[in-house]
Design goal:
100 residues, single chain, membrane
């Protein structure tokens, strides 16, 4: 008759391996969520810059003066208008709208 070996729990090596795999997966997921958050912030600020540029182009079309800067959601957007374009600078980049 064969003897069956009963394992009463997890060995230390198995525990360390499981913890290292879990830690690796957690770090990968954390890095991915951080990158997604940065991307969302960049996209949101660019969308705000586009809206501000379109607003300034409409102001020019109506004969109103261009604003120098706008603050939205705690973010400062600097504005430069010329005859055929609106340039918006913001913390994550710059947006140029040609108005010809």
């Amino acid at each position: 008759m064969r003897k069956i070996k009963v394992n009463n729990g997890m060995s230390l090596m198995s525990l360390l391996l499981a913890l290292s795999i879990f830690s690796g997966l957690f770090l990968i997921f954390d890095r991915w969520t951080t990158e997604q958050r940065k991307s969302a912030v960049r996209i949101f600020q660019e969308f705000q810059a586009i809206q501000i540029a379109e607003n300034q182009a409409q102001r020019q079309f109506l004969g109103l003066s261009c604003e120098n800067s706008v603050e939205q959601n705690g973010i400062q957007f600097s504005i430069q208008c010329s005859h055929h374009q609106v340039n918006i600078r913001y913390p994550q980049g710059e947006f140029l709208l040609k108005t010809e």
